[in-house]
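Internal tracking record. Fields below are filled automatically when a chain is submitted to the structure queue. Please do not edit lines marked as system-generated. If the sequence contains nonstandard residues, flag them in the REMARKS field before resubmitting.
Queue: standard
Priority: normal
Entity type: single polypeptide chain
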Amino acid sequence: MPFATLSPLIMPGLPGRAGIGSVSSRYRGGAPRRGWPAWPAGGLGWQDRIVPGRAAAFDELDERIVAALVEDARASYADIGAQVGLSASAVKRRVDRLRASGAITGFTVTIDPAALGWTTEAYVELFCRSRTSPRSIGAALSKYPEVTGACTITGEADALLHIRAADVQHFERVVEQIGAEPFVVRTRSVIVLSRLVSRTDIQPRGDAGR
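SYSTEM-GENERATED OUTPUT FOLLOWS
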């Protein structure tokens, strides 16, 4: 089932490992605007100037700070500063700036779904009637706590759902309920046997992806 994600309808929930904090973030590369001075590492410089509606650019120190937060969102500014070579106050300034710009979207706790009894995991392709808007699909799917993520995709299907359930019978009931929504034509499901790679969030790595 080849596809590419177009837009998220429901952001993922219940991901990752138990007991470890995570940080949600989005990354934008960029260069200083003309006329903005280069400031000392750790200080407030061009990258700290927030442009409304645009995420702050990431420099190497930002990437290392975010990587530390992704690893453990409960780490203190002093601990992070010791890893990246900055003072606690300099780390705080950078984190505050990234939060204010929207580059860091929030902090959360990740939980092992199995600890909550959600031992069955599946992906479901959703085929909808014509002229069904993504907003309508997202609103309907938000009623189901078992749907931990959903997005519109390219290809034959209209949306892809990530579902967690207690067991196969529970999963079947959820799919039947979703299939009964008035805009749904049919569904196609695959059940996860085992996870090969599981990351709680994206970590910056040098210039990768720029």
